Amino acid sequence: MSPVREPAEGREAEKRDERGSAIVEFVWLGLLLLLPLSYIMVAAFEVQQAAYAVSAASRSAGRAFVLAPDRASGYERAHRAAVTALADQGVDAAHASVRISCRPAPAEGLSPASSITVVVSTTQPLPLPPEMLGDVRPQITVDSTHTEPYGTFREDRS
Question: Per-domain residue ranges for the chain?
Fold first, then answer.
């Protein structure tokens, strides 16, 4: 007795031709993994841009205040310097806040041995928000603090 053999066409019909399916699987997996990674990278870059902007704004505002001839013009110059620094980095100054405080006392802002602290904060909206999160765009708050000493051996300008 000889073993029963199936016809040759039956065996070939059972085998599927899988040539080219690896490329399709690679493309789908690439899309599923790379799209979220790309979104995370773009969001991180946007937040980093805002972080650079508030850092430069607080430093510029502190320097502008210290170089002003009096406290009144110091507040105005500091605010303009912060707005300019934010605009240079492409951050909307409408969402930013600038707080200036003087130590040891607010009335002694440009006195010898005093220091000026500037806090600049802004909210950076995340790019391309998914619609499933609702109408409110997700935002991240970024702030920076800079303290500029007036100097011990300078004249009193307050």
Answer: 23-149
Q: Which one, of 15, 51, 32, lies nearest residue 142 by Cα?
A: 51
Cβ contact 117:100 at 8 Å: yes
- Rounded to two decimals, what is the model's pTM? 0.76
CA atoms of 24 and 41, how far apart (whole Å): 25
3-state secondary structure of 147: strand
The Cα–Cα gap between 10 and 51 comes to 67
What angle, rounded to 10 degrees, do the helices at 71-88 and 21-66 form?
A: 160
Question: Which positions ≥6 away from 59 have C-beta within 8 Å?
Answer: 85, 146
Joined together, the tokens standing for residue 131 give: 């619609």
d(C-alpha 121, C-alpha 117), whole Å: 13
What 8-state DSSP symbol labels residue 100? E
DSSP classification of residue 149: E
Rounded to 5°, the CA angle 82-85-91 comes to 100
CA-based nearest residue to 139, from 155, 123, 151: 123
Tens digit of each residue's pLDDT (9 = 90 or more) over 46-97: 999 999 999 999 999 999 999 999 888 999 999 999 999 999 999 989 889 9
